[in-house]
Design goal:
Length: about 400
């Protein structure tokens, strides 16, 4: 049997609920769910600057526009470079627009980028990311420095010089860990500057190190000849002079010699102890150092306890004096004075009787109980752990 195709109206009747559902969805979702939302763009213009943004970012653009003009003027004045070209700044409304506007591939965490061929700085608004909070003005100042250097010099300049100057002009040198760079310099772990002429490494750790090296070397050049030396270097590159000759004319040494001097200066600026106490090294040595400190403290406490015990225990001489004072004779004699048997008196050893009418002197409490002097008449030293009771003082006038 041959099956006939159903008439068109029967197919429409079969899919009618789906058509109604799609129509209701289009009415409920503003603008429709199947077409992208588009917003009109606005453009602000000033001398040498053009700023484009969308309506949702109008309030942000209003605050950013005067700051943008002031930062561009400050970068030009500090570098003494005044290109005639106009720089464009585009504030992308969405992350997709930001990535679509950038030719090639950009890092996933990028929030700003300068594209030399278009003379344009692309920025991401913080609202394009949930909880996005970054210094949009600092990012813009960094990228404006790239734009001024690109338009003024024209010829491709070393990437390390580009990034180092941009970090310097944007006041972003706080992140610089020169102690870590000094550790790498002493271990031979720095990236040679000729390998940073056109591109930086893509690995996050090596890329961060490349930025740190660029900023540190530019700071080294700044300390050597000041901002005048950097501007003289840039003007020589803008004229098209040979970079090696420009470095030699400004700094009195070629780039290789300057790089070696920078390595030496890094290594001499930090002592071994400051390098050992950096966060990078302490990550591996922190636990052993804490254990050694605990052992040293414990041994010191035990040594002090032994010293205190030795000081408190009586010496042999002190012990002998104590026995003599208690027995009235040398150790081994139970009673009686020296030279007499135990329990007998020696008249020769007795003191003379006092004259008639004078009462004999009463023995002192110390003499009866072992006293403060021994039988030999020598002052007796008491053990350290016992001290004789002090005689209470009588009040004045008491007989």
């Amino acid at each position: 049997m041959t099956r006939l195709r159903p008439p068109p109206h029967s197919r429409l009747r079969r899919h009618f609920p789906l058509v109604v559902a799609l129509a209701c969805l289009g009415l409920l979702v503003p603008g429709g769910a199947l077409r992208a939302e588009t917003s009109p763009t606005h453009t602000l213009r000033a001398e040498g600057l053009e700023f484009t943004f969308t309506a949702p970012d109008a309030a942000l653009a209003e605050r950013l526009w005067p700051l943008m003009q002031a930062d561009l003027a400050a970068v030009r004045s500090r570098l003494r470079l005044f290109p005639a070209d106009t720089l464009r700044v585009v504030l992308a409304p969405t992350l997709a627009d930001f990535r679509a506007a950038i030719p090639g591939s950009a890092p996933g965490n990028a929030v700003g980028l300068y594209v030399p061929g278009e003379r344009t700085v692309y920025l991401r608004a913080p609202r394009t990311e949930a909880g996005g909070r970054w210094d949009l003005r600092g990012v813009l100042r960094h990228e404006l420095a790239h734009g001024v250097l690109d338009r003024a010099i024209g010829e491709p300049m070393p990437l390390w010089l580009h990034e180092g100057l941009a970090l310097l002009l944007a006041d972003e040198l706080d992140f610089l860990d020169e102690a870590g760079l000094a550790t790498r310099a002493m271990a031979g772990g720095l990236i040679p500057l000729p390998r940073l002429l056109r591109r930086f490494p893509t690995e996050p750790e090596r890329q961060e190190q490349a930025y740190a090296q660029a900023a540190s070397f530019v700071r080294f050049l700044l300390a050597r000849e000041g901002m005048g030396g950097l501007t003289a270097l840039l003007h020589g590159l803008a004229r098209g002079d040979d970079p090696w000759q420009v470095f030699a004319a400004v700094y009195g040494a070629d780039l290789t010699e300057l790089e070696a001097a920078w390595h030496k200066e890094l290594a001499s600026r930090f002592s071994w102890w400051s390098l050992v106490t950096t966060t990078t090294v302490l990550g591996g040595l922190g636990a052993p150092l804490l254990v050694l400190a605990w052992l040293r403290r414990t041994l010191e406490q035990r040594r002090r306890l032994r010293q205190m015990a030795a000081e408190e225990s009586p010496t042999a001489e002190e012990a002998a004096d104590g026995v003599t004072a208690r027995t009235g004779g040398p150790p081994g004699a139970e009673s009686g004075p020296e030279g007499a048997p135990n329990g007998t008196r020696n008249p020769a050893a007795d003191p003379p009787s006092p004259p008639h009418g004078d009462s004999p002197p009463s023995p002192s409490p110390g003499a009866r109980s072992g006293g403060e002097s021994s039988a030999h008449g020598k002052p007796r030293s008491f053990p350290r752990r016992w001290r004789p009771p002090r005689t209470p003082r009588r009040p004045p006038g008491t007989p």
